[in-house]
Amino acid sequence: MIMNRSRWLFMLVLLVSGQVALSQPGISFDLKKPEKFENRKLGSEKTDDKKYTVTRRFVQNTVSHYNYYFNANEKLKDILLRAKTDHKDDFSELISFYNYTIDGTSRYKTDLDSVIYKTTAGILLHDLRTNWVDNFYLLMGQAYFYRKSFDSAYLTFQYLNFAFSPKEEDGYDKVIGSNSNEGSDAFSISTNEKRNVVKKVLSRPPSRNEALLWQIKNWIANDELAEAAGLIQTLKYDPLFPKRLHADLEEMQAWYFYKQQLFDSAAAHLENAMSNAANQQEKARWEYLIAQLYEKSGKQELSLKYYERSIKHTIDPVMEVYALLNSIRRNNDGTSNEIAIQQAIDALNKMGRRDKYLMYRDIIYYTAAKMEIDRKNPEAAKLLLQKSIRSSAGDMLQKSKSFLALADVSYQQKDFANAKKYYDSVDMATVAPEDLAAFGNRKEALGMIFTQQNIILRQDSLQKIAAMPEAEREVLLKKMLRRLRREQGLKEEDPAVYNPGFVNTNAPPVDLFNASAAKGEWYFINAAAKSKGFGDFRSKWGTRPNTDNWRRFNSVQRQGPAGKENMQEYVLTEDAAAKPLSLESLMDKLPLTPEKLKTSDDSIMNAQFVLAKTLQDGLEDYSAAITAYEAFLQRFPGAPQEEEALFNLYYCYKKAGETSKMAQVKSMLESKFGNGKFSNIVKNPGAVDSLSKRAGSALYEEIYTLFIEGRFAEATARKKSADSIYGKHYWSPQLLYIESVYHIQERNDSVAKIALGNIISLYPGQPMAVKAQRLLEVLGRRAEIENYLTNLQIERPAGDSSM
Q1: pTM greater than 0.70
Q2: What integer pLDDT is reported at residue 350 of this predicted model?
């Protein structure tokens, strides 16, 4: 009873919304005449004046079909094919329902307008009694749909629904939904498709029933799901709805449930719609989608079944690889979870070694790494991710995803130096828009941490060398000097080392291929010649890393240490290009005097404090910040930042829930800094440090003024300094917006996007957030806009023009 009421309610809405179309006599439709036919009486206007003879019927039907409908339909098929070709699925995520998007088809607006023009002409130029008029309207509605003109598509399908509804014997319209359509008590809104053999051969089926399905499709695409649900239910129980369209109705139901993320129901209905797939590849794609939907519903057996079907049917190697990967991950054969995961990882590694999957090893190793991450095995995951990166065969998106995963694993292990390096290699397009602001903040904080750690490591290494006994230090430096000379092609007694102005013009160039081999013997098959050449090369160029820029020794030298074991050599030679290599130049770097040692200690002290503060404010990693503050206070008692360090340590202990240690730090603050600024804050937690707040606000107002005045470089430098003191608490949306404009001007689009993302995430609902969203959208189309303005032809008026 409830179902019947819902059907009648839907029909009432349908009838009210379509009364304009019903009020029009016959099948007239407000179509605009093409310009070249404006002064001509067209075939559609002669419908009432001419008899519809057999000859006229044949001519009009033939011309309508082959001259207009066929061409328009072929063009629409071509547009859809191009949109499908442009579409690229990401098989690591839930793929889209269709292998094209409406945004993709709407890019071919000019071609779609041509289809609409062709169908309009097909209607207006011919007798309206032909068998193809309803087909023209259906094609027109489809063109509007693919053009993303949902309102126009709705009106076209709605007109087709009412103008071509069932008629009485005397020509009057039957009431849509009445039982007179069926001739019994059954409720129906469909058109009865019982036709004779001649009609079946010479014409297409009536398009009205298909228009009802396209109306559902139009509503779903426009997110009008309630309207779509009503019509789906009506057609589902309609006894006259033709069997040939049952698969289409199942497809609409599947898409409806897909849009609502009811994955189990979507998969079940999509199974019933498989016959609608245009070809074997589209069938395999839908099988892959069904497997994904069942996987999300927790039905692993059904998921595995459809992944295996997809593997059998697909001709897309990427889909095959992902289907294989997913089937391996889901197939546990009833074994325990840990054993199943290990079996899957072993299968993936075996798959990666096969030549057949050479081009997809990056995807295979990435999938295995994700499984290792899931079972909390970060070291194995890192090795697999590094394999994935090395195996990359040109898929930069996958390579970036591997770098991102590797950076996340390193970050979780608090390996901040490597995490920073890996984050620098991530393409911003890989990061989800909602995570963009957090990603930018983390990357910026890691950059600061990396800098401070390098300062500490460098100064510690220099002090360690300086603390050696003089004899041992001299032996170490001479050994390093000899190695460096060899790498630069300098002899041990070369006068150029001690006299930079000396140039030996008489020395002949070294011939690396000169050997005592017999004439005519090829160099590379002569072991003696190869050995001599290799030795001469090492003597001239030193031991070089296997990189493209091996000739540029300075660039290799400045890449920094790969680890702590060669840090001592690195800190002594990183600016070797600035000074000639000599024992004195190396000794000059060491803190051997009290003044140099104090400078070195001050560098370590400041770096250690900034490091701890960045861990606290930038990353909000309170456990790591506690370790850094404790190391700072232990190494530098009585430092100028001691009070603030104790206060920050108190705050970190509070965040970590270590109340006993909080009491110890509070006692230290009161005993050492009884009337200090930070000590008073701890004594009176509710009090607000208005002086500090005013100072911070005044500083950021000065920075804001610098941005307004256009002094961007100075403003950016001042802001970085202020952020290191006050964190991000004094950022304003206006300041961020102007900063992003500066970065756009400097063509640092990725940095600008981070700033705009910060506005949207930190200040949602504010007017500046709306402006930031608009600017972000414009920035995404920067190349298109600049190209348009570059090619824009402007005609200037003549000098004496009144304009």
Answers
A1: no
A2: 81
